[in-house]
Each structure stands twice: as structure tokens, then as C-alpha cells.
Design brief:
Length: 190
């Protein structure tokens, strides 16, 4: 079955923190995430070229980087590079998750629909109390939410919230990662 995956990527200020990343050297988390996404999309191009991928970046606000498109679309790379720059202070998961569900609801009826929420922080902008009802609504729309807690720096993510969001949807997985290898493995196994 063809899949449609919307990636929600945290670009809040804490994503500037450095962790073990590229070529075994320290790098800002956002750069490690970009590299993992490049690997994931190249994997999709090779093995699942008919799947669709979309992306939303979030900090103070959520921004749609691109609507679901084929992984070979050359615009993906430019939009990821332009859109995944750390220039926000807060983490508005609520707006990001809401936009992703809106993007998928009622569409792609013959496809598996997944949202992958990747964050290194806590939901501290928007109304975090709405995250659970949004996830419950996603479940009614047959949208699966997977969450990835990406940490290892000074900030720590809300593991309980990320785990709960994944559990609310059928087949949702929660993964915890601290480096590039772990992140690539998590993204490919969702």
C-alpha cells in the first residue's frame, strides 16, 4: 500500500545545540536532522518512489515547507534547506500537528497516512492541552502519529507526551534518539 508521510520538524532555538552527528563530529541538531532526512528521502526514492512525503517545520509557529509530493521531487531539497533554519525560540507542536492532520484528513483514501513528529523539546507555545484531542481526531481519520524524541543536549524532550501521542493512534510508534545513526534508524523503521 502506498503511504503519505508528513514530517513535522522542530526548528526551535534548542536545535542549535550540538550533538554527535556528521562524520562522527559534533554538529547542531538541526544539521543532523537535515542529514537524516536526506538519507530517508534517498531511501524512499530508491525503494518507495510512489510514496508521498510532505514537511512542516515548527518553532513559534508552524510553516508548511511542502505539501505531500513524490520523494524524487527536486524542490524537496531546496525547501528543506531553506525551511530548516533555527530562528525560533519556542516549540509550537500544537499548530504543527493541527496543520499536518488538516493536510491529510479526507484525502489519500487508498493510502496509509503517517505523521512523524520530531522534537528535542517540550510543547511550550500554542495550547499543548489540545495535542491529545488532535491525536484522537487523527485516529478517527486513520492517520497514524509516530513521534521521535531527539535529545542528548542541554534540553530534554517531553517523553511522556511524545509516547502518549503515538499510543493514541493505531500503530503509532515512539522512538528516542541521541545521534544521527539512531535518528536514521528510527525514521526508516516507522
Amino acid at each position: 500500500m502506498r503511504s503519505v508521510t508528513v514530517l513535522l520538524v522542530d526548528r526551535s532555538g534548542s536545535m542549535k545545540e550540538e550533538i554527535m552527528g556528521l562524520d562522527g563530529r559534533k554538529a547542531p541538531k538541526i544539521e543532523v536532522v537535515k542529514e537524516a532526512l536526506r538519507i530517508l528521502i534517498a531511501y524512499k526514492v530508491r525503494f518507495f518512489p510512489h510514496d508521498l512525503v510532505g514537511a512542516i517545520a515548527f518553532g513559534n509557529h508552524a510553516e508548511v515547507l511542502f505539501e505531500p509530493t513524490f520523494p524524487a521531487d527536486p524542490q524537496i531539497w531546496r525547501r528543506l534547506d531553506e525551511g530548516l533554519k533555527v530562528d525560533r525560540d519556542r516549540t509550537n507542536m500544537t499548530e504543527a500537528l493541527s496543520k499536518a492532520v488538516e493536510m491529510l484528513k479526507g484525502r489519500y483514501r487508498q493510502c496509509r497516512k503517517d505523521i512523524v513528529l520530531l522534537s528535542d523539546g517540550c510543547a511550550n507555545e500554542g495550547d499543548p492541552e489540545l495535542l491529545i484531542p488532535i491525536a484522537m481526531f487523527a485516529a478517527t481519520e486513520r492517520i497514524t502519529i509516530h513521534t521521535v524524541g531527539f535529545g542528548g543536549g542541554l534540553t530534554e524532550f517531553d517523553e511522556n507526551l511524545l509516547r502518549r501521542l503515538a499510543e493514541l493512534t493505531r500503530g503509532g510508534k515512539y522512538q528516542r534518539c541521541r545521534n544521527l545513526a539512531g535518528l536514521v534508524w528510527a525514521l526508516r523503521n516507522i
